Amino acid sequence: MSLLKPLHVFKAANKCLNVCNNNLNKACYSTKESFLSGTNANFLENQYLDWAQSKGSIDSSWDSFYDSLCGNALKIEDVEDEFAPRQKSSEKSSGKDVTQEQIRLHLAVQNLIRSYQTRGHLLAKTDPLELTLPARMLNIAGKLPLDTKVLDSHIVARELGGVLTEKHMDMVFTLPDRTFIGGNEKALPLREIIRRLEHVYCGSIGMEYMHVYDIDAVQFLRKRVETPGAYDRTPEEKKLTMKRLTKAVFLEKYFATKWPAEKRFGLEGGESMIVMLEEIVDTASRLGVKSIVIGMQHRGRLNMLVNVCRKQLVDIFAQFKPMQPKEPGSGDVKYHLGTHIHRFIRRTNKYIKVSMSANPSHLETVGPVVAGKTRAEQFFKGDNGDTVMAIIMHGDAAVAGQGVVYETATQTNLPAFTTRGCLHIVCNNQIGYTTDPRFSRSSPYCTDLGKAIDAPILHVNGDDGDAVAFVARVAIEYRCKFKKDVMLDLVCYRRHGHSEEDEPMYTQPFMYKKIKSMPTVDVVYSNKLKAEGVASDTDIKVWQKEYMDTLNEHFELAKKVTKLSIMDWIDTPWTGFLESVDPNVIKETGICQTTINTIANHFASPPEKWAFELHKGLERMLAARQKMVKEGIADWPMGEALAYGSLLRDQIHIRFTGEDVERGTMAHRHHVYHHQGVDGATYRVLDTVYPDQAIYSLHNSALSEYGTVGFEVGYSYASPHLLTIWEAQYGDFADTGQPIYDTFIANAESKWMCQSGVVIHLPHGIDGAGPEHSSGRVERYLQQSDDDEDVVPNLDDKLMPLKQLRTANWIVANVTNPANYFHLIRRQLALPFRKPLILFTPKIGLKHPYYRSKFADFLPGTAFRRVIPEDGPASKNPKDVKKLIFCSGNVAIKISEVVKEKKLENQIAMCRIEQLYPLPYDLILKEFCKYEQAKLCFCQEEHKNQGPWPFCRNRIENLLGKKIHYIGRAASPASATGIKWLHQKELKELKEAIVAL
């Protein structure tokens, strides 16, 4: 036997050395010789053998040390192994000598207990169909035999059938401190220990929590589930569960009876999800939560809306009728809709707000949106997670297969993105669309993501109503206590196919033969209550009749509804906002000279040298900024600072995130300085412009587009009085977040009456950076714009620009000077409504002298310029102009440079279209009329099949009744070449085409 392997043993022994110097002298210990040397090792091993035979043979001061080696745990303060439970053996307390066999048995028992705590879930009976068992899946993968004894010994606890056999079953063992199965009892027979462990860990609930880093959290869960009687529920609680199951089951039956051919993605087979959510809402209310933001898959949504969100049955039933909507817009199918309500909880006599976020069929897209909405609500309430929380619900195939789930979950502990604990609930149908779990994931569980985010995972059999209610309560108590994520895996099934129209027997015949024989969960639970004497058959029939009467009553009322209201389904209303603004006025966006000076001087001034060591490059940059301030000139970074600083002064909260936003990808912004001599010390420039300003939340994000942009969109829904900006590292990096644009930003208002003022920065420019660092894909966002190329608006209407914006689904712009950026950003808050802004920002232009504005362009009376017309020599003599070039964005620099180089300023006029959508028809027509004899051209640096050309061409030609010629690169599948020689060739040809008359 060697005592020298565990390093922590010798750390404990070092403490003994301080007490036992006389014994250390025997070991020839010196400060020059390591305690772990061979000499001391031999001494310790020989001394241990003497001690084990007779403790009086050596100094008693060594007793605690050697006790810890053969006891159940080491009591070590600085290196404590939380998985080695500590105990005082019954043999020692009775004065008997500890034998090697007794030590071995006690160690085996504590290993047995820990094995059940760690791996008991593998044998838990969580599948109501009894078709899947994680342990069985692991054994098949490992090509092991499948009999139960082998499962017990090899999958959960190898001690059984090995060290611990039948002859030990009636032996009494002292329980270690790190288990609560004994309650007030300190020792139990092995048979009873196993029985209790089986009851706790291998019943209807499977617990995965031993991977959690926080020992206090582990202890909380361990105590919560292991304490005898923990699963007990009162008769009143069981009756309430029965009533909730009755409502859940009978609502689905009612839908199926009244609308048998209607697709609704019913909850049949998983109705206990309602019990789970109701228990969470009740307990959350008791623990002080006042607002819950929910996002979920479409399966069971109608049931959730009725029984958890308490949406009126009349409104739900009316959704099944073909009716004309009251409001304009596309609306959405009923199983995508959201809502909000302030519920009164009778069990706690408290109100709680429950909101269900609208969700597209991209099941997991709503996850980051819900997280963002929750974080924003916490911000505005000054809440640290005590009163506002998120619940994100998943399908089993989606949670394991969709990458955005990880992108959202991995932000859970990031300071700028945390929601202080989110409940993740999986409605585990044990199947994807038609894909068996064996072919849709690589692990036994769909919830293994929880291990990556330090979240406990609670699996529960969906046909055990009491177990479902129990784990729900444990999960919400854990979340509220520790402010950490929890995953709940509701293992159930779907009674029909993917939808009610599908025939599941095509692909899962064995599973659905089993399902057809399954009683509904209310029948299973009612039989249990009747057997326990908690409720009679009469009681249950009375509850069923009461609910059926309610359903019939509301069905009749729904017949009287004649028009469909989309507004009734808003999940985050902005109460009073639209009523408080003039719908026909855009507020002033200019700012006074004093404000300009205050912000500009602050932005250009370095922190005190004695307090903060600045990078030398930043010192030079600030010196250049100070020079520009004296000259009354703003570059792009200054335009940003003036926009944000003035909004902060106006008490507009700004949240700005992205992978490189603090510095800016092209190192132009520098809103956060890093101390060059103190690690982690920063100076946040715009946080202190005004003493009473709003909060500027500027944060670098994780390397995530899908999850992060979704988070910011959700954040923007919280209030009309905030500015939310997400900036892509490069414009084309937004591609991986495309479902957010397609399903939320582009059309959320049309589908769900949900407005957002989110700003999306997409750095864009074909400047030799290769195909993946060039294009923000202007054409993609213009194609998604809600606009008819054949319809020209009424140009005589003075309110036309505002009406265009009001009816637009979003705004697409590509601005070319700092002042225009300033006004466009401030206009986001000045509009009497909110629209998303897709803004293509420059890369090379960020530092180019062409992108400059005078401070005078920021003053009151100035505004965003949808079009910047020619203001050079050509504008003075329009009759001499031979060519009028419309363009947008960065290409204006090249046009200007080559025209000046060829001395054609009098013959070529340039008009920059800053707002691409809504297209400024009135100003384009005005510019055309000025140069009526000139040849009309549209120039872009993008390829012909990309950029604004495909969008602008037909609209401009329809407006002017005249053909417009194209100047630009030829069509290409890639957005740009990565070969320098080709780029130079294309650029040369572009310039030649610009000046060709």
UniProtKB/TrEMBL annotation:
Record Pfam families: 2-oxogl_dehyd_N (PF16078), E1_dh (PF00676), OxoGdeHyase_C (PF16870), Transket_pyr (PF02779)
Tagged with keyword Transit peptide: yes
Residues annotated as domain Transketolase-like pyrimidine-binding: 634-848
Family matches, as SUPFAM superfamilies: Thiamin diphosphate-binding fold (THDP-binding) (SSF52518)
Gene Ontology annotations for the cellular component aspect, listed alphabetically: mitochondrion; oxoglutarate dehydrogenase complex
First-tier enzyme category under EC: oxidoreductase
Keyword tRNA-binding among UniProt keywords: no
Cofactor(s) essential for the protein: thiamine diphosphate
InterPro entries the record matches: 2-oxogl_dehyd_N, 2oxoglutarate_DH_E1, DH_E1, KGD_C_sf, ODO-1/KGD_C, THDP-binding, Transketolase-like_Pyr-bd
A GO term for molecular function: oxoglutarate dehydrogenase (succinyl-transferring) activity
Superkingdom, natural source: Eukaryota
This enzyme's EC code(s): 1.2.4.2
Function: The 2-oxoglutarate dehydrogenase complex catalyzes the overall conversion of 2-oxoglutarate to succinyl-CoA and CO(2). It contains multiple copies of three enzymatic components: 2-oxoglutarate dehydrogenase (E1), dihydrolipoamide succinyltransferase (E2) and lipoamide dehydrogenase (E3).
PANTHER family assigned to the protein according to its UniProt record, in alphabetical order: 2-OXOADIPATE DEHYDROGENASE COMPLEX COMPONENT E1 (PTHR23152:SF4), 2-OXOGLUTARATE DEHYDROGENASE (PTHR23152)
Protein name stated in the entry: 2-oxoglutarate dehydrogenase, mitochondrial
Organism: Arctia plantaginis
Lineage: Eukaryota, Metazoa, Ecdysozoa, Arthropoda, Hexapoda
